[in-house]
Amino acid sequence: QVQLVESGGGLVQAGDSLRLSCAASGRSFASYTMGWFPQAPGKEREFVACIHWNGGNTYDADYADSVKGRFTISRDNVKNTVYLQMNSLKAEDTAVYYCAATRQYYSDTSAYTRVDRYDYWGQGTQVTVSS
Predict the structure, then answer these.
(1) Which of 25, 31, 15, 2 has the alpha carbon at shortest distance from 93?
(2) What DSSP letter does each residue of the chain carry, written as one string?
(3) Which residues are within 8 A (CB) of 64 and not within 5 positions of it... i.e. 6 or more apart?
(4) Measuring CA to CA, how many Å separate 101 from each of 26, 78, 81, 93, 109?
(5) Contact 127, 93 (CB under 8 A)
(6) What's residue 89's pLDDT?
(7) For residues 68 and 86, what is the distance between their CA atoms, to the nearest angstrom?
(8) What distance separates the 2 farthest-apart alpha carbons in the chain?
(9) What distance in Å separates the CA atoms of residue 100 and residue 102, rounded to the nearest whole number?
(10) Tens digit of pLDDT per residue, the chain (131 long)?
(11) Digit-coded pLDDT (tens) for 87-113
(12) How far apart are CA 72 and CA 86, in angstroms?
């Protein structure tokens, strides 16, 4: 079992930055693929970023087109924490941001962009961007 706790959300103005954190409990954090999925009011939860083991000695990151160049996902396997650095925030980034984890390995990494591929979810942290 893995428990995920997000933090770092808040109210900011357009153009500002925020860094979200997701602390994971349990063992073998390094073997988990971690993802971030915001959910805006009245909309479905959607993928923005994930970080997954690439089969070698490091990790790869993938991003939704809407956040490429603005958001950066990273992880600290010693602290069992994954981060989402969000720069140049826009009003449309406003959402509850959920952290998710899975131990499943997919050779087709596009699978990690799907909500139904993740087994564990945090409670979410609110990000509000005023224009």
Answers:
(1) 15
(2) ---EEEE--EEEETT--EEEEEEE-SS-GGG-EEEEEEE-TTS-----EEEEE-SSSSEEEEE-TTTTTTEEEEEETTTTEEEEEE-S--GGG-EEEEEEEE----SSGGGGG-GGG--EE---EEEEEE-
(3) 46, 47, 48, 49, 113
(4) 12, 16, 11, 21, 14
(5) yes
(6) 98
(7) 10
(8) 42
(9) 7
(10) 899 999 999 999 999 999 999 999 988 899 999 999 999 999 999 999 999 987 777 899 999 999 999 999 999 999 999 999 999 999 999 999 999 999 999 989 999 999 999 999 999 999 999 99
(11) 999 999 999 999 999 999 998 999 999
(12) 7
CA-CA-CA-CA dihedral for 96, 25, 115, 47, to nearest 10: 50
Adjacent-strand bridge partners of 38? 97
Residues 6+ apart with CB under 8 A from 84: 19, 20, 22, 36, 48, 49, 71, 72, 73, 97
Which pLDDT value is given to residue 56?
A: 73
According to the model, what pLDDT value does residue 95 have? 98
Strands 18-24 and 81-86: antiparallel
